[in-house]
Specification:
Layout lengths: L2 E3 L4 E3 L1 E4 L13 E15 L2 E6 L2 E5 L5 E16 L5 E6 L3 E8 L16 E3 L5 H17 L5 H21 L5 H12 L6 H8 L3 H12 L3 H19 L4 H7 L5 H12 L3 H15 L1
Antiparallel strand pairs: 1-2, 3-7, 4-5, 4-6, 4-7, 6-10, 8-9
Helix pairs in contact: 1-2, 2-3, 2-6, 3-4, 7-8
Protein name: HTH araC/xylS-type domain-containing protein
Keywords: DNA-binding, Transcription, Transcription regulation
InterPro entries: Homeodomain-like_sf, HTH_AraC, HTH_AraC-typ_CS
Length: 285
């Protein structure tokens, strides 16, 4: 059943299941992410047998078929959402609740199944606390609806969860740079110093930056800034969160510093970027 937004009197097609039993998956017309926190199980996913062990996240497309063959003390929770939830929407004072043609692209690749990807993604020890925190808060917001921006906040956490999974999945090797990338993608919302990245890579500053620049085109701290701004762009486009909230969510201590860095790198202020991305979407639509 959809959630009713008590602030804007509209249905929001999302659900959070605190204890997933796997007997109704996949949910009709929904994408589902299942966070498996303990135990293991053997399943048949689209007629292909696989084993899923905690901690891991299972991403199910609405057309997937899953059958549990053996369940060994699995504890899990799930969040499901209608594909339209990935459309950007916001509230206009003169036109009311509005949707446009912009779609969130972050993480959509995780739901595709092929010979390489099964939709099951292992969660590393470093990423687990952050994913658990985001998943927990997202589930709490579904029921609490703590303020008029609760839907935006859920989108924020969904973007962060799927973005982290996508980045972790694209860097399966564990070279010094991969370790730093994993650290950045997991902890970018926190305060990070160059010393933190040096300790993570077990390299000195010169060696870390040289290897990092050869592979990414950026120094380690330069890449951190670039990634923070990338996440900020998604939040500006797809949510109505304030600049101060977005600054805190992406690791900038003050919104003034966030605005300065964003304007310097993007050539426009965050507000100008937000307005231009939405105006472009309506023109395209």
């Amino acid at each position: 059943m959809p959630q009713m937004d008590r602030y804007k009197d509209r249905p929001v097609y999302i659900e959070f299941i605190a204890k997933e039993e796997f007997n109704k998956l996949p949910y009709e017309d929904r994408f589902t992410i299942v966070f498996i926190t303990s135990g293991s199980m053997n399943v048949k996913l689209n007629d292909y047998p696989i084993k899923i062990a905690a901690p891991s996240i299972l991403c199910l497309h609405k057309e997937d078929k899953i059958e549990v063959l053996e369940n060994q003390n699995v504890a899990s929770q799930s969040f499901c959402f209608h594909p339209d939830f990935f459309n950007t929407a916001y509230f206009s004072e003169d036109k009311g609740y509005m949707s446009n043609s912009l779609k969130i692209e972050t993480g959509l690749s995780l739901f595709k199944k092929d010979d390489i990807s099964t939709g099951v993604f292992g969660v590393t020890e470093k990423a687990y606390p952050k994913l658990y925190e985001w998943f927990f808060i997202m589930g709490t917001e579904v029921y609490a609806q703590s303020d008029p921006l609760w839907v935006c906040r859920i989108k924020k956490y969904l973007i962060q969860i799927l973005g982290l999974l996508e980045e972790l999945n694209s860097h399966s090797e564990k070279s010094p740079v991969d370790l730093v990338l994993e650290y950045i993608h997991t902890n970018y919302s926190d305060r990070i110093s160059l010393e933190d990245l040096i300790n993570c890579a077990h390299l000195n500053r010169v060696s870390l930056n040289k290897i990092f620049k050869d592979l990414t085109g950026f120094t380690a701290m330069g890449y951190l800034l670039k990634y923070r701004l990338k996440v900020a762009e998604s939040l500006l486009t797809h949510t109505d969160m304030s600049l101060n909230e977005i600054a805190r969510a992406t690791g900038f201590e003050y919104d003034t510093y966030f605005i300065k860095q964003f304007t310097s790198k993007e050539g426009m202020t965050p507000t100008e970027f937000r307005n231009s991305s939405r105006e472009f979407a309506f023109i395209q639509h």
